[in-house]
Amino acid sequence: VLFSQLKSPEISTPCPYTCTGIDPSYNYCSFEGSVDFNYCSLISSVPRETITLAPAVKLVSQVTSVPTSVPPIPSLTGVSLQPGGTFTLVGTHPYALSQSTDIGRVLDVMIGWNGKLYIGYGDYNANTGPIQIAPFDPITKTFAVSQLAANTEAIYNFRVIGSSLYAPAIDPRGTTSNYGYVKGEPWINAVNSGIDAEHVFDVVSLDGSDLYAVGSRINSHAAAVWRSLDGGNTWTLSLNEEPVRSTDYARFYFAGVYNGKLYVQAQDMYSWTAHPRSKVFNGKSWSDGPSLFPVPYQRSSGWRPEVFAGQLVYKNKQSYGALMAFDGSQARVISTGNGSSVLDFTIEGNYLYLLEANGKLSRTKDLSIWENFSAAAPAEAMSLAFLDGILFLGASDAKLYSYISP
After folding, report:
1. Which of 156, 152, 191 is nearest to 303 (CA)?
2. 10 Å Cβ neighbour count for 54?
3. Per-residue confidence at 332, pLDDT binned at 50, 70, 90?
4. Residue 135 and residue 312: Cα distance in Å, rounded?
C-alpha cells in the first residue's frame, strides 16, 4: 500500500469519511486536506476496502478500449517557458491507457532523458503490470513501441545515474526476488543477486561508483538498504531496520544524497508513522541522524529527494503532501503561499518547478520567493518534467500535455 491517487474534495467539518463498523465521529481527514485511506485497517481489523469514499472525485474515467495508434498532436516548435501561456494536449500514452484501473492510467512520473520523455504508470495496489517502457519522442511526436516490459506492477520513480536511467521495481510481479529495477539504454530487467526485496522504492549513487537500492525485504518486516560496488551485479545488505512494533512493516521509501552522505528514514506501514530518526551513511558506516519530518508531519514517508539551492528537497509523501527542505541539521516545510498539497516538482536550470493539487504551477530560485504561472494546469495533472526546454504535464487517462508560452 502506498498512497491513493484519488483527488480529494474540499474537506468540511465534520470530516465526510467514515469506516464501516468504526466510530463515525473519528476524523479520517489528514491535516494536509487529503484522506487517509488506510486508517480503517490501522485502528482496527476492519479491511481497508470498507472505507466509505462516496465524496471523493475520481481523476479518471473508465477506459473500455485501447487505441491502435497515437492520435495526431500539435506541433511543439517555438515553445519556451515563461509565466503565462496555455497547456495543450499532445498525446495519449497507449500502454498506460490499457491499464485496468483508474490509478493505473495516471501518468505518475516523468523524466526527460537522452532526447525522449520517459513515463511511469501502474497500480501496484491492484497488482497491475508489466509496465511498458515506451518514451515520447518530441521529434516524431509519437510514443515509441515498447522497449521493455518491466517486470513490476508500477513505475513511480526514475533516477539518472551515470550514463543510465534506472526505474525501481516498486513491486516485482509474482514471487520474483533478486530484482530491484530496470535500467537503460539498452533496457533490461536487471537481475540483482543479493537484493531480497519485496519492494524497491529508490535507487541512488553516493559517489558515482556505488549503487544503493532501498525498500523492504521479502519474508521480513524490515526496511532495507542494499549496496553494490560492481555496477549492480552483486549486492549486500547494508542496513536492516525493524519496525517500531514487531507486528508492523517498515519501509524505506526514499534515499537522499546530500553533502557526501546518504540519508534514509523508515516509515511503518500500518501506523503510517515515520521512525523518530533518520539513518545516515558516510560511505563507511551508518549512524543516527535528525528526523527529516518536522512536527506535525511525523506521518510521512518521504519521496524522491533532489538537491536544490544548497538543500535536500523532497515531498513528505508520494502525492498530496508537503514540500520539505533539509539543510544538514534540520528539516522545514516549504510553502508557496498557494495553500494546496504538492503533487510533483522538478528542477530545470536554476529553477525548481512545483505542481499543486489546486492546479497552481509555480517556480522558485531560492525556495523563498515563488512566481506563479497565470495559466492553471489541467485539473487532472499529476506530474511534470522538462525535455529540451519544454514543460510537460502527465495526467489521468494517460494524457500528456505541454506548456505553450504566449
Report:
1. 156
2. 7
3. very high
4. 28
